[in-house]
Amino acid sequence: MTPTTTVSTGTNVPKQRASLSLLKTSKESGEQAAETLSADLAVFLSDPSLRSALADGSLDLASYSSTINSELATLERECIALHRQAAPDIRILREEMDVCDSILAGLQEMLLGF
Questions:
Q1: What three-state secondary structure class fits 12?
Q2: Is 6 helix (H, G, I), strand (E, B) or coil?
């Protein structure tokens, strides 16, 4: 996006001031990205086995990424299977809740009649 003399509020400002606003915004987003990266690195380095592998240079990040992706795919498949297994129980629970809801609605109508 190129700086213009019109800011988002529709007012005209000098080009230099508009450029500074854009610079400040991009600097803030850069700072947020740096903070996120620092937090991610801290989590990554908190694992002792990863820390030692990084220290001796035996860690192949491409291989590690591939392993993590395959583990995530496996966990996703397992999670979907568990949800499919629980679907009949969830359907029964929903039907029971509907029955309870209709009973409570009838009780409410009866109590409102007093």
A1: strand
A2: strand
The alpha-carbon radius of gyration of the chain (Å, integer) is 29
**pTM above threshold 0.70:** no
**Rounded distance between C-alpha atoms, residue 11 and residue 5, angstroms:** 8
Let me know: does 4 contact 15? Beta carbons within 8 Å: yes
Task: Give buried/exposed letters for 34-61 (b at 16+ CB in 10 A, else e).
Answer: eeeeeeeeeeeeeeeeeeeeeeeeeeee
1-24 pLDDT, tens digit per residue, is 444 333 343 443 334 334 434 444
**What would the pLDDT profile of 86-102 be if each residue is shown by its tens digit?**
999 999 999 999 999 99
Q: What is the helix (H) or strand (E) element at residue 27, kind and residue range? A: helix 15-45
